[in-house]
Amino acid sequence: MGSNPLDLRLWLSKVKEFGELREVLGADWNLELGAISELNVKRDVPPALLFDEIAGYPKGFRVLTCSTSSPARLSSILRLPIQKTHKGLVEVLRGKPAQWQANARNFDPVVVDASFENIQNPVDILKFPSPLWHELDGGRYIGTGCSVVTRDLDSDWVNVGTYRVQVFDRNHVCLDMVPGKHGRIHYEKHKKAGKRFPVAIVCGADPLAYLISGIEVPFGMCEWNYIGAILQQKVQTTLLEETGLPVPAASEIVLEGFVEPNDERTEGPFGEFHGYYPGKAGTAPVVTIEGVYYRNDPIIVGSPPAKPPNDYSYSKAVMRSALLMDALVAAGVPDVQAVWAHEIGGARMFNVVSIKQRYAGHARQAGHILSQCGVGAYMSRWSVVVDEDIDPSNLQEVMWAVATRTDPAIDIDIIQRGMGSKNDPMYVAYPYGAPLTSKAIVDACRPWDHLGEFPPVAEASKELQEKMRAKWKDLL
Ligand SMILES: Cc1cc2nc3c(=O)[nH]c(=O)nc-3n(C[C@H](O)[C@H](O)[C@H](O)COP(=O)(O)O)c2cc1C
After folding, report:
1. Among the atoms of ligand 1, which is closest to the Cα of residue 270?
2. 100 vs 227: CA distance, rounded Å
3. Helix (H, G, I), strand (E, B) or coil at 214
4. Which of 32, 137, 194, 381 has the fewest CB atoms within 10 Å, i.e. the most exposed one?
């Protein structure tokens, strides 16, 4: 197993080497893992947390959280040179998602023999320390930083998506897949045809697995291929006995089963990425578990959503910023300097682009495309455009530009009836008959038609700042 590049333990040993792994002994699955992780992630550079000796469970049955919450860990997960700052990370990431996507077809996963050390008979998923993450959650969740594998009904397309997984009892879990998500599309087809729906749930693997199954990989593409393109090596998979679905051979814990026709029950509620609970719990498909496979001393990878910053808001901000940057360039917007999809908006609802203005209308063009491009349109609420002297990831600077470079009457464009979500906390107050929302594009660039007269910034020049930093380095 040690030579498998998707082996979580190999990655953990690297993280330990660069000093970002903390072991926590004796915490309780009942709210403590969740609260500790939530407090941890609000620190400047939060370490990854590996919980062991969890109350009521044998030593070795572990839970990992905060795996993607630092630039160093995220760059190592993406197999990029280790970066200590998010600016450095976004810089090395630029253009990579487009390359990975283009190369994915060359990396069909390979099939190897199964090597799980344990196969449960009879199955009992209560043996694993699934956390109750937050006080208002409707139950315990074994799947947050997980990867759910499904197959299309009328093609051989295998999809892998991160969808939360609630534990019901020793052999039933519930899957929350929002309409439009690829796994949900697979499920709806089976449901319509009255067929059992095969599902495999990878509850722990190298965080690269859930990082990629948790972003928008194109329709029809398998995430194992995409991951292969990142690793520059085909993913080694094992075909599960009952469903034939492929899961990484190095997985920590895998659940395998079927949704029986029309077996849907109340799921949740569970906190969402934007920091709120949806109005009320809804129904979702139930998976009857028929196979449970795990390694000795297995590790659940947890990544609970909560009010941002949360466990995965940093990785979402980095990944979506890189994807938005690529989308703007692909749409032909020139001189885009940087993009940042802010954690406070769950990397969806408050996005900023900086441009070097080249022509009249350039700023509006960038703002509208940021708001409406494929990767950005879902739940985009505020899209802000700033000049190149503003760092889009620095809220202080962004809001200074909004405060000082806008005339609200003409600098906020509103798009009506845009793409929203039932998960939007504002959904309750909206008058629409579907998940629609209005969207604001804020042009916080200096006005193009008055550039010449716009007052200069009262701040030491970059050169003077650097000179002072060098000369007065003990002071500054
Ligand atoms: C930790 C984490 C948890 C997530 N939970 C859910 C969820 O419960 N339901 C859902 O529909 N999407 C969830 N998402 C978002 C989806 O994983 C994401 O939209 C992904 O693109 C879905 O895969 P698909 O495009 O193949 O459908 C989550 C993402 C992450 C990173």
Report:
1. 8
2. 8
3. coil
4. 194
pLDDT class for 279, splitting at 50, 70, 90? low
3-class secondary-structure state, position 70: coil
The reply to whether ligand 1 has any atom less than 6 angstroms from the CB of 215 is yes
Residue whose C-alpha is closest to residue 363's, from 247, 476, 261, 447: 447
Give Cα separations from 417 to 126, 181, 433 (angstroms): 45, 21, 10
* Any ligand 1 atom below 6 A from CB of 221: no
As a whole number of Å, the end-to-end CA separation of the chain is 49
pLDDT digits (tens, 9 = 90+) for 27-85: 999 999 999 999 999 999 999 999 999 999 999 999 999 999 999 999 999 999 999 98
Widest pairwise Cα distance in the chain: 77
Tokens 């569970």 -> residue: 270
Cα 248 from chain centroid? 19
**Residue 353 corresponds to which tokens in the numbers above?**
């682009």
Residue 320 CB less than 6 A away from ligand 1: no
**How far does residue 182's CA lie from ligand 1's centre (Å)?**
10
For residues 230 and 232, what is the distance between their CA atoms, to the nearest angstrom? 5
d(Cα 233, Cα 6) in Å, to the nearest integer?
A: 10
- pLDDT at position 278: 77
* Ligand 1 site, residue 348, Cβ cutoff 6 A: no
CA 401 from chain centre, in angstroms, equals 29
Report whether residue 164 contacts ligand 1, using a CB cutoff of 6 Å.
Answer: yes
| All residues at 6 or more sequence positions from 54 whose CB lies less than 8 Å from its CB, including other chains | 26, 27, 28, 29, 33, 61, 62, 63, 129
pLDDT at 378: 94
Q: What is the DSSP letter of 132?
A: B
281 pLDDT higher than 60: yes
Q: How far is CA 411 from the centre of its chain?
A: 31
Q: How far apart are CA 275 and CA 421, in angstroms?
A: 14
Give strand ranges (E) for 165-263. Answer: 165-169, 172-175, 197-204, 236-239, 246-248, 253-259
Nearest to 62, CA basis, from 111, 25, 109: 25
Phi, psi of 288 (to 5 degrees): -85, 120
Ligand 1 contact, 216 CB (< 6 A): yes
145 C-alpha to ligand 1 centroid (Å): 10
